[in-house]
Amino acid sequence: MSEAAPARPVLASPVPRGEIGVSGFYLTHFLAAVFPLTAGLLLYGWRAAAVVAGVIASAAIWAAIWRRIGPRGRMIHYPHALWFALLLALMLPAHLAQPPGNVWAIIAVAGLLLVILLWISGGLGGGHLHPVLATYLLLVICFGELLAPHRILNRSHLLTGDLFRTSLADARAINVPWIARRHSASDADDIEPAAERLTRYTSGHEIPQRKWLPLQAVLRDSLPPLEDFIVAGQPGAIGVSSVVAVIIGGLFLLYRGIIDYRIPLLSCIFAYLALLILPIPAVITEGPQWRWAAFRSSAIGWSVDVTFVNYEIMASPLIFTAFFLATAPTLRPMTRRGRTIYAIVFGILSAVLQLYVSVPVGPYVALLIASLLSPELDRWFKARPLI
Amino acid sequence: MSDSAEPSTCVLQHVPVARQLWVPCAAESKAAGSHVIRGEPLAVDGTQAPAPAAGQITGISDQALIGGQIVRAVELETEPNAPGGTDDRATQPELARTLLKTLASGQLEEVIRQLLAAGIHADRWSSPDLLGQLREAIDKRVDVVLCSAIDLDPALPLSQTLLSERALDVATGTAALARISGAKRAILALPEDSPSQIVTAVRAAASATSVTLYPLLNEYPIANASLLIKRVLGRRLLPGKLPTEVNVLLLDAPAAMAVARFFLHNEPMLHVPIGIYDPARARGHMLLAPVGMRLGDVLRAAELETEHCQMRAGHVLRDISVGPDAIVASGELKVFATGARDAHHVSACLRCGWCIEACPVRIHPAGLLEAAQQQDREMARHYGLPACIECGICSYVCPSRLPLLESIRLLRAQIA
């Protein structure tokens, strides 16, 4: 619709309009993002604030410059660009704010890339490629390892602590929830994120310390309690570390009628079902022994499978993606039936990519693929008028 | 139909006859200079357009009704202080019963002729071309007569006012048309939150005339003919088609009342009820204005200050601008005066899909905008153009302030 059309200030009809305009639309998104943002600031301290401020400032500066370039430039809308910048910042780890090294440059590059992609896609409502998603995936390709989060503030140093004043977390303490853990004197813990551990196991790259490594042992010994994902306690991206905060933000968007409930609901349900069914390594010996989780081999019972799926869902950015990215107007189809199919495809693809490619990146790639279907879905579904 | 939170209704206020009237008359009219008395037909053959007041014919011109239809009208210079007003005789239930007993099907052609001679007609969003429907009913079976007493906007409760004052007339008019057209059912649709005194009056009237009551939630734009027929009878009527296509005869409360007054008291339609929303006092005014009076004259006579207002016919969201020169007749009977125009900045389509979510007939307004831009008829059909009722909700909810309703009207004009 109106892709890359120059924005012309014209007098619209005198019909009284609804209260929410374009700026209000994105302001509501900002308000919803306050919840995961607050959780991120608490868990990662001033470095998280620096990353968010850096990405937003960078995007604002570049947007001011790129707005002057051609008719596409005029389609760059500040509230839209700034919302995308905040969204991108929420997907980045807080340790990028590291002045002594060169890592901080990623923040500036992120803002520039975002604005360039926004310009290419035609700005407001243009294109079917989410600039935030594309920017993030480009950053992952270019700086993969640098984007892997390993640090999180201790409970006693929330908000005020420094993420780089760390000590290695006691391996035995991993089974104790972060919220109840007795922390060391340092500000933060250095922990291997559960998402990486899960990726290694499910993709079959795990090398067992003993002769064999069953799934139960991974779940029991190597992963933190689920509370660490639901409330907080696992290192991750700034906006993705607390599932509760993400869900509250998403529910706020639903309450304000900004997003369609079908997308987060169906995508999460279908991702869950797919994860329950798809083959997973039941045990790793010399190599992974794949079993269809759906057929309940002796190695994987219901309880193990459900626990495994819970970890997969909580450790990945699936819920954040489902609420804040998959619902983006440029990505999802406009028709109800189209949205239903899109959500199902996204959920299933997300499960597949999480299992066999990467837990932290899988949902983003899945969304990128599912969004390519949107124009076709809109074309397939003809309007079915009531009268 | 609850008794709580009752919306108030107003009393119909008579508007004195203006010095100049423009009375719609499709037939050949009497020559300029002819003098007519009140109720005398303005047509040469005496078949239509009764004069609302005594006066002299000064000419013929094309005039716009409230709602936009252009009609041929006879200009009538009325006598100073010409008597106006209406016959305020109340209808007794016994009289209604007697009338309904005497009416029989098969008289349609004669009834059409009589209604035309009495100036009774309606052609508006909630009551499509009444005489056209009756003409089609001669050859086509009608099994339901549906009368809508639903107000598009509760701020202007014209139908509720008529029900509170003339419930028996409204029910009798509906039942009479059912008898004449041979319809098995006569239904009166009214808001389920109607005030208790109206409900009591309507129940008594329905009982006297064997009309079935159909209370429903009054949500804009349920009063639209296509939507109302879908909701009440489950039949699909494309906008622009007459309800007789689906074997229904549809009229609204003012039309039903006019029909009943004619049958019961031989009263021609010299006045029409009209509702005007006054933004200064934030309330609706219910008036009884002579047919052929200019809207500006009505407003002046009723002492409504609407000089700096934007006037819209039917409903605000439908965005049908109406000027002070529009004529009061069979067109829209509600006028909303709203504040001065606001300038809105239009943004590109966000693809938010709110227009689709909000559309009461489930079409794709954003797709229709694209079809209008590309002038693509096939795409317009794909996105449901034929089903659009032009309610304007899509334009209202659009965060980008896109002119969706305007584009749909433009598209229709291009295709036509």
List strands and helices in order, with pairings.
The complex is a heterodimer of chains A (387) and B (416).
Chain A: H1 22-44, H2 46-66, H3 70-74, H4 78-90, H5 105-121, H6 131-143, E1 151-153, E2 166-168, E3 188-190, H7 194-202, E4 213-214, H8 215-222, H9 227-230, H10 243-255, H11 262-277, E5 279-284, E6 288-292, H12 302-315, H13 318-325, H14 336-356, H15 362-380
Helix pairs in contact in A: 1-2, 1-4, 1-10, 2-4, 2-5, 4-5, 4-6, 5-6, 10-13, 11-12, 11-13, 11-14, 14-15
Chain B: E1 13-14, E2 20-24, E3 35-36, E4 55-64, E5 70-78, H1 93-102, H2 108-117, H3 130-139, E6 144-148, H4 158-181, E7 185-191, H5 196-209, E8 212-216, H6 225-233, E9 248-252, H7 253-265, E10 271-278, E11 283-290, H8 295-301, E12 310-313, E13 334-338, H9 354-358, H10 365-374, H11 377-382, H12 393-397, H13 404-415
Parallel strand pairs in B: 1-11, 6-7, 6-9, 7-8, 10-13
Antiparallel strand pairs in B: 2-5, 3-4, 4-5, 10-11, 12-13
Inertia-based shape of chain B: globular
The radius of gyration of chain B is: 21 Å
Number of helices of chain A: 15
The name of the CATH superfamily of the largest domain in chain B reads NADH-ubiquinone oxidoreductase 51kDa subunit
Question: How many strand units of chain A?
Answer: 6
Envelope shape of chain A: globular
Largest sheet of chain A: 3 strands, mixed
Descriptive notes:
The complex is a heterodimer of chains A (387) and B (416). With 387 residues, chain A is mostly helical. Chain A folds into 2 domains: 22-147, no CATH class; 194-224 and 259-380, no CATH class. Chain A is built from 15 helices and 6 strands. Chain A has helices at residues 22-44, 46-66, 70-74, 78-90, 105-121, 131-143, 194-202, 215-222, 227-230, 243-255, 262-277, 302-315, 318-325, 336-356, 362-380, and strands at residues 151-153, 166-168, 188-190, 213-214, 279-284, 288-292. A 3-stranded mixed beta sheet of chain A has the order 1-3-2. Chain A has a 3-stranded antiparallel beta sheet with strand order 4-5-6. Chain A is globular, with a radius of gyration of 22 Å. Mean pLDDT of chain A is 86; it is low at 1-14. Chain B has 416 residues and is of the alpha/beta class. Chain B folds into 3 domains: 18-81 and 270-338, no CATH class; 93-265, NADH-ubiquinone oxidoreductase 51kDa subunit (Rossmann fold), CATH 3.40.50.11540; 354-415, no CATH class. In chain B, strand 4 and strand 5 (70-78) form a beta hairpin. In chain B, helix 2 (108-117) packs antiparallel against helix 3. The two termini of chain B are 42 Å apart. Residues 1-9 of chain B have low confidence and may be disordered. The interface between A and B is large, with 40 and 56 residues.
